[in-house]
């Protein structure tokens, strides 16, 4: 039996479910059965079917031949779509030569709550092409949350294993990826980040102690993958905080989850678009900037510049490698490292290089105002970012993973334009990129809105903003509206 604080989190999460055709939570719980041998929903709950005649799920390959028993046709189609199109091959843990799909899919045979979570996640993704799947997604999500709630609350019922719960939370995190424009609010009107609720719950689970050796390999693999997700969300959130009251907890999450990732530091985080080592550098730079902005006793300019120079050299020498994948029984060999001098060709290479350049631009805030070299370095990075944009950066598929995180570098660049020429050329390219990506399921609209406000500020506003304790120019434009910029 798990601790009561964790149970309370699931109660809170379940109470946040909303949407059309979703009945009272307690009534829903009484209709849904989460037994180990069957997956059933009574007929009154089937408000939407998955008719292949009117909606075709495009599956390029049948994938692994997983045919689970007692699945309705609509759920079977969703599950096969997940296996074929949404379940990656990436290696999730050092020294453990199994891919993500080789860890997750076998668990589905033993856990119906994990299966329901997968169906919820998949339906929530498919709803972007057919909104009728929204109800299916919400019903499966409701079943999962209430199943966890009942298991944690019922003393006479066998609890789900920790491995089941961790894997299920992973799917609930994926579910939230496709709801970034639907940030709930607390009673005071401040934004709530669902990923932080999940992160707190996982940390409580891990604090319960080590798992039996039978499940330890699977658990460590799931935790490593979850850690990459939470690290990406927390580090990028730390760069654009609102409200600032969250900064201590988010910084703590960022440090914790970066330390829990069991992958090479130079490997590109699948949720961020840059290496985990670069994510760590972004966190360090942002933290230092906040300390300088919020402290009356700033460090000596000479020491500050020395540190910034060392960090810039580290950033330019940093390798960033594509995630290793397992195919045909073997893990793929390491690809050539991508230094800053390389010419990026693929979208992944362009994005990781854009992250590097944007981080150097961010670092420029720590240089003394009169440093000519730092100014030239920032100009060069902005020009390179403009070239990457001009080379044809593709907009991710509607609702694709990374639909907003991959534009973080261009958000940073847009907040640091220094000359009239840049405001004309680079700002126009950024505006076009964001405008093509505007949709109800991404955060691009809010991000572009903040940028437009930044571009409308008068010259010299940066100094005034920073003198008020803001670490970044964009904070002064969005804090009054309590905006949450989600990078997913």
From TrEMBL:
| Pfam families, per the entry | Fungal_trans_2
Coiled-coil ranges from the UniProt annotation: none
**Mainly resides where?**
nucleus
State the InterPro entries in the record: Fun_TF
Q: Which PANTHER family match?
A: TRANSCRIPTIONAL ACTIVATOR PROTEIN UGA3, ZN(2)-C6 FUNGAL-TYPE DOMAIN-CONTAINING PROTEIN
Ubl conjugation among the record's keywords? no
Location relative to the cell:
Nucleus
A GO cellular component annotation here is:
nucleus
Which terms does the record give in the GO molecular function aspect? DNA-binding transcription factor activity; transcription cis-regulatory region binding
Which UniProt keywords are listed?
A: Nucleus
The protein, known as = Fungal-specific transcription factor domain-containing protein
GO BP annotations of the record are: positive regulation of transcription by RNA polymerase II
């Amino acid at each position: 039996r798990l601790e009561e604080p964790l149970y309370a989190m699931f109660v809170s999460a379940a109470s946040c479910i909303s949407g059309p055709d979703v009945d009272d939570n307690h009534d829903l719980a009484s209709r849904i059965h989460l037994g180990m041998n069957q997956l059933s929903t009574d007929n009154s709950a089937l408000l939407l079917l998955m008719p292949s005649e009117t909606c075709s799920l495009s599956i390029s390959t049948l994938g692994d031949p997983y045919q689970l028993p007692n699945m309705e046709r609509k759920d079977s189609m969703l599950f096969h779509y997940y296996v074929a199109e949404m379940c990656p091959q990436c290696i999730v843990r050092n020294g453990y030569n199994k891919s993500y799909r080789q860890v997750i899919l076998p668990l589905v045979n033993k856990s119906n709550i994990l299966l329901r979570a997968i169906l919820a996640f998949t339906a929530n993704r498919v709803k972007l092409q057919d909104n009728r799947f929204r109800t299916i997604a919400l019903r499966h999500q409701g079943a999962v949350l209430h199943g966890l709630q009942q298991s944690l609350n019922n003393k006479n019922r066998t609890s789900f294993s920790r491995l089941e719960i961790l894997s299920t939370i992973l799917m609930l995190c994926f579910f939230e990826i496709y709801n970034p424009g639907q940030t709930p609010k607390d009673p005071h009107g401040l934004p709530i980040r669902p990923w932080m609720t999940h992160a707190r719950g996982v940390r409580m689970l891990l604090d319960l102690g080590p798992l039996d050796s039978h499940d330890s390999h699977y658990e460590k693999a799931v935790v490593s993958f979850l850690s990459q997700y939470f690290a990406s969300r927390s580090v990028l959130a730390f760069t654009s905080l609102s409200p600032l009251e969250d900064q201590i907890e988010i910084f703590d999450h960022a440090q914790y989850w970066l330390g829990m990732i069991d992958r090479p530091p130079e490997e590109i985080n699948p949720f961020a678009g840059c290496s985990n080592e670069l994510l760590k550098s972004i966190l360090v730079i942002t933290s230092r900037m906040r300390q300088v902005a919020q402290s009356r006793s700033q460090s000596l300019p000479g020491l500050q510049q020395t540190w910034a120079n060392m960090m810039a050299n580290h950033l330019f020498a940093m390798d960033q490698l594509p995630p290793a994948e397992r195919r045909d029984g073997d893990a793929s060999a390491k690809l050539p490292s991508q230094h800053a001098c390389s010419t990026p060709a693929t979208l992944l290479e362009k994005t990781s290089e854009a992250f590097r350049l944007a981080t150097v631009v961010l670092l420029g805030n720590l240089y003394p105002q009169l440093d000519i070299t730092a100014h030239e370095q920032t100009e060069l990075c902005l020009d390179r970012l403009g070239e990457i944009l001009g080379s044809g950066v593709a907009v991710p598929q509607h609702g694709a993973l990374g639909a907003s995180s991959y534009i973080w570098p261009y958000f940073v660049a847009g907040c640091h334009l220094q000359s009239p020429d840049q405001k004309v050329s680079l700002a126009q390219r950024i505006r076009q990129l964001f405008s093509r990506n505007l949709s109800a399921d991404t955060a691009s609209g809010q991000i572009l809105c903040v940028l437009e406000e930044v571009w409308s500020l008068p010259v010299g506003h940066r100094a005034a903003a920073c003198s008020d304790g803001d670490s970044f120019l964009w904070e002064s434009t969005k804090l009054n509206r309590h905006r949450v910029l989600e990078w997913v």
